[in-house]
Specification:
Blueprint: H1 9-21, E1 32-36, H2 38-48, H3 50-70, E2 76-86, H4 89-99, H5 109-113, E3 118-132, H6 134-201, H7 207-242, E4 248-252, H8 273-294, E5 299-310, E6 318-328, H9 336-402, H10 408-442
Parallel strand pairs: 1-4
Antiparallel strand pairs: 2-3, 3-5, 5-6
Helix pairs in contact: 1-7, 2-6, 3-6, 6-7, 6-8, 6-10, 7-10, 8-9, 9-10
């Protein structure tokens, strides 16, 4: 509600000076205006939003780690091929044995001590399989839960992207509606000033009445300029969020719709994507703690190898195979495992606390969001009623003024009241839509 006072010449000069400083803000030359509906804006944000792209990349990275953690559970098959030429006595003796060319003459002491150089072309296939390694199993489970946490985090980022898009779109819609209201108020102020001038020329109004009308016109122009500037800012913020180029401004094609009844449904906060991400992170931390404990447990590996040896690449003079089972047990590692266990235990505790706190916050957020929507609905109803009443009061006051039953101040106050109430109704409707968007985000259940 604007407070009205009778203006003096000094006040009018100040108002006109402010008007000269507050020039109308328009988009820069060369700007491309792109019309978008709310759904098109959401689709654009989901396609080009950098935060969402980063979250999805982090999800894919975590998925790659999960796949890599499963690798040690599969048999490992290696292939080797090589060539060696040497006159080292031990190498020559062993190579002849592997190639199957060792004979009685090779026992000659002179030949044993000073053998001639020999060529060895070898190929080998090696198999290693961890039959029993609990540390690998728990590590795989931890990586899998980390991947799940990253996946749910990406889902929540997607939902947050939709929320931000809706909020920025509603802000742009609000700015557009406010600009339309400011333009209407400016036209009304111009019409009122024109009417006052005619009456002033006939001696029906005083100089103070005319000055007051001129001041109200200056104020209307200043408001229109400020609203136009705010609208450009809102459109630029929306375009930046959508990933549009700096010379492209999105123009909302949808209008702020009237409130609708909010559909009630059962809500389980544990099904929210961010809480599922925290739950998976807590499970991953628990698995990491188990992995540190399993480092004390022995592991059993299966070993197998098949190799061929020859004097040239195309010959297989000798071949052999090896099969065995190996026990691995790290008895002591300088207290490294105990420190790792302590760290994992603390990380598990932190993750558990974060999940429990987030669960409590989610329930509180739901109550707050529902109250905000109900309050916004009441504000829309109240401001709509007040705006309609102020509009009717303005029209009535204009008729009374034309009939000489109301003063110029009464008319100017009625017009200002109608403008304020109209702006309040627009803001209340925008706040309602933003509250609904927040409620949808809070009680979003991802499957």
């Amino acid at each position: 509600m604007y407070k009205f006072i009778r203006v003096t010449g000094l006040t009018l000069m100040f108002g006109l000076a402010q008007l000269n400083l507050a020039t109308a803000q328009t988009a820069p030359q060369g700007t491309v205006h792109r019309q978008l509906s709310l759904q098109q804006a959401i689709d654009q944000a989901l396609a080009d939003n950098p935060n969402l792209a980063i979250a999805e990349a982090e999800r894919d990275i975590a998925g790659s780690y999960s796949k890599a953690a499963s690798g040690p559970l599969w048999p490992r098959l290696d292939f080797q091929a090589g060539y060696i030429r040497s006159n080292d006595p031990v190498f020559v003796f062993g190579t002849k044995l592997r190639q199957g060319r060792f004979g009685p003459e090779d026992f000659d002491l002179q030949e044993l001590n000073n053998p001639a150089a020999i060529d060895d072309w070898s190929t080998a296939f090696g198999l290693r399989w961890s039959l029993l390694d609990p540390k690998i199993w728990t590590g795989r489970s931890s990586a899998k839960n980390q991947a799940e946490a990253a996946n749910w985090a990406a889902v929540r980022t997607r939902e947050a992207t939709v929320l931000v898009t809706r909020s920025l779109y509603y802000r742009a819609q609000t700015a557009t509606a406010q600009l339309e209201a400011a333009n209407a108020s400016l036209e009304a102020a111009e019409a009122t000033l024109d009417s006052f001038r005619k009456r002033h020329e006939r001696g029906l109004l005083t100089d103070a009445d005319l000055l007051q009308a001129e001041a109200e016109l200056a104020a209307a122009r200043a408001r229109q300029s400020a609203v136009a500037s705010s609208r450009i800012d809102a459109l630029q913020d929306l375009g930046l969020h959508l990933g549009l180029s700096s010379d492209t401004l999105p123009e909302p094609t949808d209008e702020l719709a009237s409130p609708e009844s909010i559909r009630q449904r059962e809500f389980n906060p544990e099904e929210r994507a961010d809480l599922r991400a925290l739950s998976a992170a807590a499970d991953a931390a628990s698995d990491a703690k188990s992995q540190a404990t399993m480092a004390y447990v022995p592991a059993i590996d299966l070993l197998a190898q098949y190799a061929t040896y020859g004097t040239d690449p195309l010959s297989f003079d000798g071949e052999n195979w090896t099969v065995g089972v190996q026990l691995r047990w790290n008895v002591f590692s300088g207290f490294g495992r105990s420190a790792e266990g302590q760290r994992a235990s603390l990380e598990k505790r932190i993750a558990t606390i974060e999940y429990e706190q987030a669960l409590r916050d989610a329930k509180s957020e739901l109550d707050q969001a529902e109250r905000a929507v109900r309050s916004a609905q009441l504000q829309v109803e109240a401001s709509g009623t007040a705006s309609a009443a102020a509009e009717a009061g303005q029209q009535l006051m204009r008729r009374r003024f034309d009939e000489g039953l109301a003063t110029a101040t009464d008319l100017l106050q009625a017009e200002a009241r109608a403008t304020a109430m109209r702006q309040g109704a627009i803001n209340a409707l925008a706040n309602y839509h933003m509250a609904v968007a927040r409620l949808d985000f809070v009680r979003s259940q991802s499957n």
